[in-house]
Amino acid sequence: MTHAIRTFLDLSTGHLREQTCRHLADYKGIIAHEFTYGWLMYIHDPDDDSVEPIDQADWPDELAPIIQLAQASGCDYVLFDADGPHADNLPVFAW
């Protein structure tokens, strides 16, 4: 029997604006689950035609580069954690 193993990109919640965090699960096409100190967001397969392309989605600007980084890294999820690491190539928001 084989088991499905999923990977996630571990990032600080500081890569999201406070407003984005408060409404992360409300954006059309975003699947996110809130935890005590962060969120787990599903990353769609970039070849999935049933999902609106990132550049056409009505999402906050900071989400596109995060999703693209996760997809390029082969990740299925992004874990936004208050104590998570900062990525050098992503903006950081103070809140």
Key structural traits:
95 residues, alpha+beta, 4-stranded mixed beta sheet, 2 helices, 16% helix, globular
Could you describe the 3D structure shown?
With 95 residues, the protein is an alpha+beta fold. The chain has one domain (8-81). Helices cover 16% and strands 20% of the residues. It has helices at 18-22, 63-72, and strands at 8-12, 32-35, 38-42, 77-81. The protein is globular and about 45 Å long. The mean pLDDT is 92.
Helix and strand topology:
Elements: E1 8-12, H1 18-22, E2 32-35, E3 38-42, H2 63-72, E4 77-81
Parallel strand pairs: 1-4
Antiparallel strand pairs: 2-3, 3-4
Give me a quick take on this structure:
The chain has 95 residues and is an alpha+beta fold. It has helices at residues 18-22, 63-72; strands spanning 8-12, 32-35, 38-42, 77-81.
Largest sheet: 4 strands, mixed
Mean pLDDT figure: 92
What's the tally of helices? 2
Number of domains: 1
The oligomeric status of these chains comes to single chain
